[in-house]
Structures are given as C-alpha cells and as structure tokens.
Amino acid sequence: MIQDAWKLTAAQAQTAFAAGRLTSVELVQACLDRIKDTDDAIKAWVFLDPQAALAQAAECDRIRKAGMATGPLHGIPVGLKDIIDTAKMPTQRGTPIFKDRQTDHVARLVEHLREAGAVIMGKTVTTELAFVHANETRNPHNPGHSPGGSSSGSAAAVAAHHVPLAIGTQTNGSVIRPASFCGTFGFKPTRGVISRSGVLQTSVSLDQVGCFGRTLEDVALLTDVIGSYDQRDPASFARPRPNMSAGVAAEAPVTPDLAWFELPFNDRLSGDAIEGLEAVLEILGPQVNRMEPADTLSNLVAVQARIHEYEIAQHLAEVFDTQWDQISETLQPVITRARKISKAEYDDALAVKASAEAFFADFFKEFDAIIAPSAAGEAPAFGNGTGDPIFCTLWTLAGLPCVTLPLLVGETGLPIGVQLIGPVEKDDRLLRTARWLQKHLAQAEE
C-alpha cells in the first residue's frame, strides 16, 4: 500500500492501480481515515457511509482482478454536493425541510460516474437550497474562515484531501469562488455540457454543474466522464462535447491572446488580490489586452440577479409557501424581493442575457481567453457570509466555460485563485490555455 494514499490525485491513483501498487479499497480506506481525522473541524460531509464506500471499492478491485473492462474513474472516490440525487443516500439540499429525503432515482451525472467506475463516497455540505445562507463547513486552510458557497463541502473536501474529486454546481459563483477560497482547481464547463437532471433546480436558465480537483488533469477527466446530452435537460445540447483531457494535454500552438476587463466593480478586490493579479498581468505583459468595456457589461450583474431570484421563487414556490418558517432569515428577504419581480421584467432580463451571449460569441473571435479574478480576495471570516460572487457573475450568466487556478496567496496565507474564461463549447481550448498559463508563470519564477 502507498503511504498517505489520500494525497494522490485521481490520475496518480489510476497509475498506481495499473501498476498493482494500490487497490481501490486501500485508497478509499485512506480517504475515510483522513475524513475521520479532520472532518470534525472542517465539516465537509453531511452524509457518509464508510461501509457502502468500501463495498463499492471492493467490487472495483474484483472487476480489475477479473480482467474485466474498467472505466476512466475506476475505483476513484468522488464526493457529491448534497443537491444531487443518489439512490440509497439522502439528498437533503442544505435545509431541515428536506431532512432524510431520499429518491429511488439517481441524477444523470451519477449514472455516468457509476459507469466510469467511480466510488460515490457521500454527500458534501451545501448552503441552504444552494443559495445564500451558509451552512457549517469551514475552510480547511483556516477553520476560522468560510470555504465559500454554495458548493462549500465539495471544495473543502478536495482541499482537505478527503477525496481527489468532487462535484458542485454554479448559478452565480458557487464553483469558482469556493475553489479559489480553498485553493483547489475549479472548472465550470460550458452551460449544457453536463446534464442537470436529478439536480436541485434553482434556476433553469443559470444552473450549471462543475468540478473540483487538485490538478487541471483531474477536473478535465471528471468533466469528460459526466458530460453528455440529456433530452430531459433543456440546456443540454445534442452535439459532441469538447475533449477536456485532450485540451489539458495539448500544447498551445501559438502564444494565447488574453483580455482583462477594467470593470467598475474591480474596486471590490482586496489589496493583496490586486497586488497578486497585477504581478501576473505584468509577467504576461503584451499578451494581455487591458480593456474598459461599456457600462452595459457591468450592468449584467443586475440581470443575473433578476433571473436567478425570479426563477428560484418560481421553481421552489411550494417550498416557500408551505415551509416559510423553516427558511433562514438570510434567504427570506431575497425571496420576498424576488416575488415582486414582474414577468415582463424577467422576460427583459432573459433578452439581455441572450444579447450578452451574442456579445461574447463575437468577442472570442479575437481572444483565446479572458483573465479575471476568481473572487474578491481571501476567504471571509466564518460567519460573514460565503464571499462576493460578482467576479463570476458575467461569465455564468453567459454560460461560458470558466476555470480557476490556485496561483496566489493572500496576506494571511489563504489561497486566492486566478480565473480564465473561454468561448462556449471551446472548453478544451480554455484548458489548453490554462495549462499554458501555469507553465508560463512557473518559468517566470525560475
């Protein structure tokens, strides 16, 4: 057995499996031991069934020893955000309203995980109904700080080496921001790459699925596994998906052209985030075109909020009507405001969203990627919310692929991510650019 197997990435674990130096049972047990040792302080998991996880791992080992076909995640432990339906496990959606809720069906992405041989470890903590009210998870780097939200537990579980991979969702900044705060890689592919069937719907227009890992290779691998067309999901598209793993492995044929937007809300960045981002931009030099876009671009923040709030009030109307006293004081005023949004205002917001999508489709004819903050800075103190999502809002609204790289460290030692955004359905090119950026910055430090 490999000592401290919980430190392995998914790709490293697969190599060890193939070489006969590690079994899935050994890896899962190492992860379970790591969870036992650290999760009392981190609280990343809302449901964990060690015996079921070990049984899945034992079956993976049996299949491998029998010489049968294995999938790309065969024997690899994965955590699921607690809004993703999984038979034989509760899906409680971060609220006592759905305590012990269990379904007979599984989400479409879980079917793909099973087919690929993944070991479903359990459910990671989410904020209330995957929205604004924080739950109990702490930042693994400093428990006095938030891990971000709403995919709090998924980011924390990967950062704490509980699992090499985890799945979250993003309607505003709920993958990229917690990945930044927790110092992991976070990847939200193009809207429609991954099916949302069997995932709590808070916004049919904006909800997207994303992945956490400790390397670009790992988040690419996980996305390749769970991406597919699904006619049940209105955002899913019936076209081949980009090959994410091939994108990560490819060398950029030419030096990428990047854009940086001087947006009015950049003044929300902390001093250490500004300093770190400026250092990155200085290294990149002429490869970055600094732009001051029209005010209409920053106005998209209000458009995203209108769509998100209107749709969650509609989608979960029965919950809010019948369980209002169990809704947090954080969420109640948001829903009260949302119910005042008219259908005409909502329709106008959808029209602006469509125009934003058209703008970015044209914009990326000249640029390989936009470079941007992943979050405003280091993770806020626990109890002060889950952080400002505004540096993700525009890209999520337009359904663009986004990846955050853990490149910076703040003044108190907490991680700060750098985000790259690419054109729709060119996710492989975005990941290729991300790999180029990693290498370029590493060479600059030598």
Could you outline the blueprint of secondary structure elements for this entry?
Blueprint (H helix, E strand, L loop, with lengths): L9 H9 L5 H19 L2 E4 L1 H16 L11 E5 L26 H8 L3 E6 L27 H8 L5 E6 L5 H7 L2 E4 L19 E6 L2 H11 L17 H6 L8 E4 L9 H14 L3 E4 L3 H4 L1 H16 L1 H6 L9 H7 L4 H21 L5 E5 L16 H8 L4 E8 L5 E7 L5 H19 L1
Parallel strand pairs: 2-3, 2-4, 7-8, 7-9
Antiparallel strand pairs: 1-3, 4-6, 5-6, 5-10, 9-11, 10-11
Description:
The chain has helices at 10-18, 24-42, 50-65, 108-115, 152-159, 176-182, 216-226, 244-249, 271-284, 295-298, 300-315, 317-322, 332-338, 343-363, 390-397, 427-445, and strands at 45-48, 77-81, 119-124, 165-170, 185-188, 208-213, 258-261, 288-291, 369-373, 402-409, 415-421. It is of the alpha/beta class. Strands 1-3-2-4-6-5-10-11-9-7-8 form an 11-stranded mixed β-sheet, with helices on both faces. The chain is globular and about 60 Å long. The model has no long low-confidence stretch (mean pLDDT 97).
